[in-house]
Each structure stands twice: as C-alpha cells, then as structure tokens.
Amino acid sequence: MTGPTSLAEARALLADFPVVDGHNDLPWALRNQVRYDLDARDIAVHQNAHLHTDIPRLREGGVGAQYWSVYVRSDLPDAVPATLEQIDCVRQLLARYPADLAPALTAADMEKARQDGRIASLMGAEGGHSIANSLGTLRGLYDLGVRYMTLTHNDNNDWADSATDEPNVGGLSAFGREVVREMNRLGMLVDLSHVAATTMRAALDATEAPVVFSHSSSRAVCDHPRNIPDDVLERLPGNGGVAMVTFVPKFVLQAAVDWTAAADENMRAHGLHHLETTPEAMKVHRAFEERNPRPVATVSTVADHLDHMREVAGIDHLGIGGDYDGTAFTPDGLSDVSGYPNLIAELLDRGWSRTDLAKLTWQNSVRVLGAAEDVARELQATRGPSNATIEQLDG
Amino acid sequence: MADLQDELHPPTEVGGLDGLPDPFEAAEAYSPVSDPDSAPLERAHAILAAHPVADGYSGLPWALRHLPWYDLELGESAVDTDVPRMREGHVGALFWSLHLPEGLAGDRAVGATLEQLDLVKTVVQAHPEGLRLTCTAGQTTDARNCGRVAVLLGPAGAAALGDSLGILRSLHALGLRILTLSGATWASEAGLTRFGEEVVREMNRLGVLADLSGASADTIHRAFAVSKSPVLFTRSAARALRPHPANLPDGLLTELGAAKGLCMVPLTAEQTGPSVRDVADHLDHVREIAGPECVGLSGTYDAGTAHPQDLGDASCYPHLIAELLHRGWSEADIALLTWGNVQRVLRSADFTARAAQQRREPSTAKIADLDG
Q: Taxonomically, which superkingdom (chain A) (predicted)?
C-alpha cells in the first residue's frame, strides 16, 4: 500500500499537472439511466449511488481534462442519430456546468482550461459505426467538436476489424485507410482502442499524424485481445502517439479476464446482452458473483501495466483512460474518478519521477492533440475534403 | 440603413414579446435609390443594388451532389445558379435547401442531412470570394456588405430530426436555420402532435425558423398558434390564382399577414405560371392580402422544376422587378420584398431565441412520452 506521504505528493503533483483522461462514458450512463434528464443526475453534487463520475469526484481525482465518449451501440441501426444525441448531451452538460467544465477543441484550449482551473471537456466517438460509411458525416462530427474516433467498438464495421470480432478485412480496407487519411486532414485523432492488432498496425502504416489508444492496456501483461501488443507499443515513439492505460479489471487482470468470460456466458444463458447494465442485468450479474467470487484488480495491477508499457513505448507515449461509467467493475483504489491520486502515489513509490508523472498525466496527451492539429494544418494546405465512398474503394 | 438602425434596439424586441409595441412597426422613412424617370429595368438594377434578393429556396445542394466537378466561381452551366449569375441577378442571400428525395426520408435521413450540411460547407469554403455561410440576420447583412452572397442552411425536412430534440440541437449547432414541418409522424396530415408542438417551441428557443410550404392545413394552423417567432412559407404562391397544393388560400394569407409571417413566392411555372407577368400577378395578390411586409421571393432554382419564361436562372430577377415597377410598386415595397422582409424574419427569430433561452431550459421531451 502507498503511504500518506506519497498520496499527498501525488495530490500536489496533480494540482500542477492534472489528469487528461481519455475515455469516460458518462453520456452513455445518462442516456441509459435517465434518458438525458440531467436534473435527475445533477453532477454538481455527489452521485456515488448511480455514477462513477461527478464534478466533486473529478475535482478530488485531480482531473484536468476529460474526453467524454459519445459512444453508441454498434449492434443497432441508428448509430448516426444516436451519436448526435450523445453529442447534444455533452453540450448540455457544458452549458449547465460552465464554472467547472470548459469546452475544449484544441491543445491550447486544454492549457487554457488548466490555467482557469476548469476541466477541459473534449469529445471522442467510440466506433466507426458512428459515421455510417460516410466521410461527410465524419466531418459533421468533427464540426460538432468530436476530436477522436475509435475506429471500431466491439464489432467489426465494413472497413475495420475489431479486437473482439472475427477477422474480416484483415485490418483496414481501402476505405478504412481513407477514413484515417481524412481524420488526419481534419485533425481528429485516430483512436486504436478496441481494434484488432491487425487494424492497429494498418492504421499506424496509414496515418500521417500521431494516434491514441484512448483506453487500452498491455497485452504482454494481460493477454486480452483489447490490449496492445508490444510490437505495436514499440512503434509509438516513431509515430509520436500515446497509449492511455485503462483500469477495466477484465482487461488488466488475467484472473478477471477468465472470470468475465464465464460471467458473460452466464449473462447470455439468461438471454441478456453481456454489456447490459440495467438493474435486471446487474441482478443476474450479482447472483453469479455470489457463486463465483470476483477476482479483484488493484492499483498495483494497473501500475504493472504502466511499468511494462513504459519500458516498451517510453515515458513520452503513456497516458490514462479510465473508462469510468463504461464498465460495471473497477479496481480497488480506483473505484471511481476520485481515485487517480492513488495510482500516482503507487507510481511515486515505484520510483517514477515528478517529470515522468507530469508526462503521464498531462503533457503527453495535450502534445498529441496539438500534433494532430499541426498535421491537419499542413494537410489542409495540400488537399481538400475527400468524398470517396466505400463503394468506390472497397467495391 | 434600416438594418443598422434596427440593430441598435435589440432589447426592445425582447420586451415586445410581453405586449409592448413592435419596434419594426415604426420603420424608418424609405429613401429612394433610383431615378423615377429612367427605364424600369435600369431602376430595377439600381434598387436591387441597394436591396438585393434574399432568395428563399435553392435546390443547389442536391444538384451539386451529383456533379463530379463544378466551378461556381467562374460559372457553371450544369446548374441554374452560380456566382456570376447571382451577381448579375443581385442575389444577396440564398436559403440552401437540405430537402432529401423520397427514398432518403426514412432511417437514413439524419445521416443524409449531415452529408448535405457538409456538402454546403465544402462548397462555401471552396468559393470564399463569392459565398459566405451565415447563421443570423447580422451575419447576413455583414456578408452582403462584404460583397458575398450569404448562404443560410435550410430548409431541411422534418425527417432530418430523427424524432429527437437532441438531434435538432445538434443540427442547429451545425448551422441549420430553417426546418420544413412536414414528412414526420409529428407533423403530418393530422397536424402537429404534442411532440410536434414541442419541436416548434424548441425551434423558437434555438432560432430555427419554421417553413410551412407543403405542410398540411392543420399543421399550419397549429404552427401559427404555437410559434413565438414568424413562420415562413419558402415556396408558396396564391391559390386564388393557381390551384397548387402548396399555394395559400386567401384566408391563410390573411392570417399570415396578421402573424407577420412571410410568404415567399416561387418562380416556377407549376406554382405561379409560365410568364413573368404570372409571377407578378401572384406577388400583387399576396401583397394585397397579406401585406407588403409579408411577401418574399423564392427562386426555387436547381430544384428540378420548370421556370417561367425570362426567369430561367438566378440572373433574371431584374426582369421581375422591372415588371413590378411597371405595375406601380413603390421602391419601399420592392425593398421589403427582396431583402427587408427576410431580414426582419431572421432578426425576429434571433430575438425570440434570445428571449426564450432566458426562460426555457433545453427540452428533454421524448416523442414516446408525448405521442405515446
């Protein structure tokens, strides 16, 4: 366990270099729980009973910038309309809590928010299904403020393979590479969480700008397909990108990976989708948990990933992406968005320097967005918007 | 000039909602810009130079979508509208329709509307010398003062909302300013449902104008009753002169005049007739019934319809204005017809929105709750 001195030091450090978190599913939780009735979940006060996330706990956790995920399910047909509703939800949150949440579209906005003591709020789309195979729609999302797009979610789309689906196009199709090119031109970060390793490599080959992994950990430490293999981590220094470590127990702890596979099987046996978080689904989940005690990940589990990722990718290519409100379970010590200081304290105890930690929490993630903007400016001088279609490129 | 004068008193309009006098009633005296002794066509050019046409409907986005290549800056013969012809015709502002063809009106409507919005933005960015995207009355005036044609986004069809106020707000954030209230379950032949009325209130709060051309009679009446800001008909002429379903009967024109809405008369053979004089007859009629401050123009170019003779493309407006001068229209009324009325409606929508935002939170109503 970390001592009180380390924790105090961690908090002091976070006051200067707060956490940029790569992925938070609060909008999805608000859609699911209260259908965007923001009065019913006033995040200006503690919402511990319902959410991992609220403003008091973001403050306690030393969060200085948050990518709010505008995730929508990939197994339903109305991804584009639903994504617009998710974006509207984030905009409503920004309008409601202007003293705490600062709208941010650029690295400069992030720095400005840090100086103002507000939480820079960005948006990330989680899955290429949100653009329905249309580059015009991609540009629409960019115009609405979306600054990264994860190429897939748990299912393949027509142009990219997911880590948790059967191989289809073998990474990226020709149209998939065009999506990456257009994202580069716009200055929207290419997010490689959730995608198959083949897609990670294909995207790194295609991209002209640094990439991110908004919430992914190390496959060498815990063998789950959602995690990043070492050969991909090794390419980050060349690319300039950032891998933002996630805390989700079923991705970071081998025992939890195995336990989750069994739990998912149990959910399906009850006729439920394995990611369902409705009260009924949670009841089934809890019953399973009573019979099979859940392996518990800890702060130290996450730190193990960071130690390894640092060794392979280097200190300049690490970040944090908690996936709060997007997962049923969280590690001990990182149970909600107030937990980041525990992770920083653990890393201090492991000998990480203040300089290293400032890179991990703040500097790397801000740098990568700024770099994407620079690339976009250069590309926009040389090429216009692409109107390629999937029919043209993939036949 | 009138534009600048009105800009100075925005708070008065906010108060106007509470029953205070409407500041637009007290318009400035009009100062003529043409020599009454010169030929009508010459006068038409002089008037249009000062009071250009704000055109209520262009089908350009869908027309351009199917062209592999085009140049609006130097002139494009594949369409009826390009920058040189708009300059020749003194077009100062243009509503770019985002209406979709039948097949796209269902599930795909939201995505297809995003694509159309993107196309318009791409076209405008590619023609910075000629075109400028605008969202408000002030920006529209600015564009004109900078010698650019103001491009306003809309009307879009009701299906573009995907039955969601969140999507309406997202489309507004992308620039949408006009929405046609037809083609959705909440705005059908049966009129506006409860959700439909909530859509209109949210449009008022955002500053999105309601277009009622092609809407059912019941929808039109509910929209008149619910809307706090003036409504538009982007493509409607006089039914007394030509029995087209989108044309307005005299009763409605009277109501429109009382509500200070705007009937924008389309230059199409189908709705107005085959000659310039037919169009002028409609304009005479609408002006007489609804009033000179409630009539506007709608070129309806590139929307797949035939146009009256001598009004074949966006360069032809001076012919029409010359005909109106010939009929004895005053310069002041022509200035209202071409530019002033649209400016008033846009500005009124802005003010209504600002006032409503003080009083109403964004609506969280769901169609399933209101319409069951």
A: Bacteria
Residues A210 and A320 grouped into a single domain: yes
Tens-place pLDDT, residues A298-315: 999 999 999 999 999 999
Structural domain includes residue A192:
yes
| Residue-range definition of the domain harbouring residue A286 | 255-296
A375 and A314 belong to one structural domain: yes
B15: pLDDT confidence band, cut at 50, 70 and 90?
Answer: very low
Closest by Cβ to B111, choosing from A85, A92, A132: A132
Total structural domains within chain A: 2
- What ipTM, to 2 d.p.? 0.93
Task: Kindly tell me if the per-residue pLDDT of B2 is higher than 80.
Answer: no
Clarify whether residues A179 and A283 are in a common domain: no
Residue A105 lies in a domain: yes
Closest chain A residue to B117 measured between Cα atoms? A140
What percentage of chain A has pLDDT greater than the value 90? 91
Specify burial of residue A147 (Cβ count, 10 A radius: 0-12, 13-18, 19+): buried
Q: Which two tokens stand for residue A312?
A: 């392979």
Are A61 and A165 part of one and the same domain?
yes
β-partners of residue A298 are: A332
Assigned domain for A391 exists: no
For position B20, what pLDDT does the model report? 52
| Amino acid code (one letter) for A6 | S
Architecture of domain B2-6+44-362: Alpha-Beta Barrel (3.20)
The mean pLDDT of chain B is 92
Catalytic one among A52, A153, A224, A308?
A153
Q: Which residue of A has its CA nearest to B118?
A: A136
Q: Are residues A65 and A171 in the same domain?
A: yes
Above 70 in pLDDT, residue A113? yes
**Inter-chain contact A88–B170, Cβ cutoff 8 Å?**
yes
Q: What's the rounded mean pLDDT across residues A77-82?
A: 92
List Cβ neighbours of B103 (8 Å cut-off, separation of 6 or more).
none
- Residue scoring higher pLDDT (B20 or B82): B82
Percent of chain B with pLDDT over 70: 92
Q: Let me know whether A160 and A56 are in one domain.
A: yes
Residues A160 and A266 in one domain: no
**Residue A390 forms part of a structural domain:** no
pLDDT computed for residue A158 by the predictor:
97
Tell me how many residue pairs between chain A and chain B have CB atoms under 8 A apart.
Answer: 72
